[in-house]
Amino acid sequence: EVLAWDGPHADLVAAFADAARRAVASERPVLVAGPGQGEHGARTLVAQPLLIENSGAAGALGIVTGGKPGPGLLGALAEVARYACGQLELAELDASRARLDRAEVRALRAQISPHFIYNALNTIASFVRTDPARARELILEFADFTRYSFRAAGEFTVLSDELRNIERYLALERARFGDALQVRLRIAPEVLGVVLPFLALQPLVENAVRHGIAGRRGGGTIAIVATDAGTDCLISVEDDGAGMDPDLLRSGALDAIESGSGPAGSGESAHVGLANVDDRLRAAFGNDYGLIVETAPGAGTKVSLRVPKFRPGVRA
Predict the structure, then answer these.
(1) Over residues 296-308, mean pLDDT
(2) pLDDT > 60? residue 99
(3) Which pLDDT score is estimated for 36?
(4) Contact by Cβ (8 Å): 76, 46
(5) How far, in Å, CA of 199 to CA of 236, rounded?
(6) What's the angle, vertex CA 157, arms to CA 303 and CA 108, rounded to 5?
(7) By the 8 A CB rule, do 13 and 5 touch?
(8) Which pTM does this prediction carry?
(9) Which residue from 47, 44, 50, 41 is spatially nearest to 20, judged by alpha carbons?
(10) pLDDT per residue over 207-217, tens digit each?
């Protein structure tokens, strides 16, 4: 299909389409000499294939010239074709990156603990007869939590929306744990509009509850802090729970922790989505913006991250 034709000689569209098909099939330029007389005499049509690395020919770029084209004109056409190929490769790279981002978000959603969902529903059920009003509140929180977590739009969100969804999650967990789960929030108002990857904080808080607090006798406290740090926003999620061996972090990094080699003790992954969040932060903002994990057995865990207040091309 001819996508565009600029200038005269439109009577050669069919001839160019045929030459373009041959150029694409052979991955070599095709010259068609004298395809009919134009108003300015003899004409030559040249079809230059657009060759994408590791993908073959994506199409063809053509020119019509009077007489026989010389090396200079053919070289200029090849250069223009190379430029067009570069733009196509950049567009495909952007599309691939967007597909990867969507795949990583889907993977992260799939890692949201099924046990949390089961426990939340069981907790709600326990309130249905004893406190119907409370049960209704929790049902609404659960509905809003799942609606946000499984939304279809956007790979990024703002901190205020992410924190609101965490509040829904913690409301459901506090209904289950009661006073055994304490939460402290310290959020600087000026960073509420900071843009960060969608579901970047939810896994950190879920890990703090599941592995820091749930298995600890007497419960514990989770602290979520977001502060203004000049051009960046600093965010941390800290628990005073079981902690883990820091050698696991040094030897296997976050991927090894997720494989189940950590102190989960239940056959589940020791930590949900940490490598996913780390990868997405680095992809969005650069390698200076990955996760930092501080932990020790019996000393709790603190996960910190930095997010730039502004980054061109990154918006919710």
Answers:
(1) 90
(2) no
(3) 60
(4) no
(5) 14
(6) 60
(7) yes
(8) 0.62
(9) 47
(10) 888 877 776 77
User: Nearest-CA neighbor of 229 among 311, 286, 312, 306?
Assistant: 306
The pLDDT value recorded for residue 69 is 82
| Of 102-116, 120-134, 237-251, 274-288, minimum mean pLDDT range | 102-116
Q: What is the largest CA-CA distance in the chain?
A: 94
Q: Which residues contact 223 (CB under 8 A, 6 or more apart)?
A: 183, 184, 185, 186, 236, 237, 238, 239
Domain with CATH 3.30.565.10 in the chain: 112-308
Tokens for 242?
Answer: 């079981």
Calculate ∠ Cα 216-220-222, nearest 5°.
Answer: 125
Q: Tokens 């691939």 correspond to what residue?
A: 96
Size of the chain, expressed as the number of residues it contains: 316
199 with 108: CB under 8 angstroms?
yes
Angle subtended at Cα 250 by Cα 247 and Cα 253, rounded to the nearest 5 degrees: 115
Q: What's the CATH architecture for 10-95?
A: 2-Layer Sandwich (3.30)
The Cα 4–Cα 17 span in angstroms is 11
Q: Quick one: tokens of 186?
A: 């310290």
Helix (H, G, I), strand (E, B) or coil at 279: helix
CATH class of 112-308: alpha beta
Q: Where in the chain is the domain with CATH 3.30.450.40?
A: 10-95
pLDDT in tens, 165-199: 999 999 999 999 988 899 999 999 999 999 998 88
Please give the DSSP secondary-structure letter assigned to residue 209.
I
Q: Is the dihedral of CA 108, 109, 110, 113 positive or negative?
A: positive
CA distances in angstroms from 199 to 9, 134, 196, 257, listed in the order given: 55, 27, 9, 19
Q: Is the dihedral of CA 41, 45, 46, 50 positive or negative?
A: positive
Tokens matching residue 246: 């820091």
Whether residue 47 contacts residue 40, with contact meaning beta carbons closer than 8 Å, is answered with no
